Amino acid sequence: MATLMAKAPRMLYPAQHFVNNSVWLPRKFAMATSSAATERTYKEAFDSAANKRFADLIIPHILHLYGSCATSRDFEIYAANATFEDPLMCARGVKQIKSAFYSLPKVFKESKIVEYSIKENMVSPGKGEILIDNKQYYKFLGKDIDMLSLIKLYIEEGKVVRHEDWWNKKPISNRETVQLPFLGRIAEMTRRGSMLATHVLMRFGKDPSV
Asked: Residues of 61-73 as b/e, b for ≥16 C-beta within 10 angstroms?
């Protein structure tokens, strides 16, 4: 006990007692410590639950979009100026995003996300990044197509401001991701052209009649 007292910081506790070599701390100190620990535990649990609830609200809409069964309500997760990009298209604004996903059943007999896992990087409530590691299935001209993908959702003020779909988990080609910026620029222009053509064919993002 003498050795313990020599190593420990010198502190004075009123009404301190030693029973069976155990230290009984003052009641106020113990209650304050317990209260602070409980508060931290509740805060961590609340933050984790809040983030989880946010992802739970987003994911069903994403599954609808990729499952060729989207309705206008599924696009309410996006901010007005949100963008969507994959290796084929680059959509700007909710109307173009609608055209991109409403076109899926026009091209594929069937499409859906069959497997997925979620990772959240939320820096504050309603702001951060959600990563969806997934496997997509498409049926095109009688052929079954399976594709691995990484969907990246960037969140601000509770809305998706940027949605990227990395096929085969590879970054989308642009001026910043390819060795020759000129080729990246061509890829960007091609995606924009494809998107604008699709936008016209889909009547500028018009919601389908129910």
From this structure: bbbbbbbbebeee
CA angle 110, 120, 70 (to 5 degrees): 25
Please, which residues bridge with residue 79 across strands? none
pLDDT tens column, 48-106? 545 456 888 999 999 999 999 999 999 999 999 999 999 999 999 999 999 999 999 99
Cα 166 to Cα 30, 44, 134: the distances in Å are 52, 32, 10
| pTM, to two decimals | 0.75
Tell me the sheet residues that pair with 162.
83, 154
| Structure tokens given for 4 | 């313990």
Structure-token match 């313990």, residue found: 4
**Cα distances (Å, whole numbers) of residue 113 to 34, 68, 138, 148:** 46, 10, 9, 10
Question: Measuring CA to CA, which residue among 84, 96, 82, 89 is closest to residue 191?
Answer: 89
